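User: Hi! I'm working on a homework problem where we have to compare a predicted structure to a textbook description. Could you give me the structure for the chain below?
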Amino acid sequence: MKQVKIGKSDVYTSKLGLGTNKVGGHNLFNNLNEKDGYDLLREALNLGINFLDTAYVYGLGRSEEIIGDVLQDYDRSKVIIATKAAQDKSQDMAINNSAEFIKKAVDEALSRLKTDYIDIFYLHFPDKETPKDEAVETLSDLRKAGKIRAIGVSNFSLDQIKEANKNGKVDIVEDQFSLVHQSPVKEELKYLQENNISFVPFFPLASGLLTGKYALADWDKFKNSDGGKLLGNFDKKQYDEAITGIDGIRKIAEDHQATVTQIVLAWYMANPAISVVIPGARNAAQVRSNAAALKVELSSSEYQQIDHLFSSF
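Assistant: Happy to help. Predicted structure tokens:
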């Protein structure tokens, strides 16, 4: 599997990763089965998907604990673990980027993950008080100490990213991006490419919208779903345009004997602005289906056709 270099670090990862908010994320999703979480992690690693993206807030540490358990059965040097923290449980989950909090959060994550280093550590959200370059300097100190290997920020505005990267030490940014959420991050992506900073999109499948499971008549169903609520200000006009675009993708999927989801993931993996794509999964079957996207090779015209179908976003 093709390996991607993360920013200016020495971390290399597979182009397709795994988002693990459904592994132990009982506070985020209903009816999660922990056995499914263990199974899907093993399936991903067995298939060569070596990038696991987690966070403290996924089950308040439970996702990290499950990953830590599974890691014991694999060669740690071949698995890339990315985790995130900012929610301070000692302050009613207030966002905290202070040096004291970051150091404590990293040590606690190391303990839950049952490892002595974290490949990528993100500030999950920016707080209002801490200068962003100071927070990054704390992470730089932790990197020098061997506790982390690459520095990331998530949910930062472009101005905050620039402040965080004042000394050129940010390796990777995780932010919302999908075929139906592009224009808000256009300038951000340009800055990242100019400054050798990797980019990982979250909500790449737009919380289920881009899987092809909805039709034009399903607006109310989508709007009231967990995914619809996560996308926030998505309106009926945008929904109709998205469904029209998905119908166009469906034709391409038929030509490749692939699913809509696999074609969408293949488009992301072919996009030069995107370093790693991390779709989530609830079970091992979904991981296998996502992994099949690695076999899809879009032609230049197909890539451009999909780009055009979603140009209004």
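For your comparison, note the following. The chain has a mean pLDDT of 96. The first strand starts at residue 3 and ends at 5. Good luck with the assignment!
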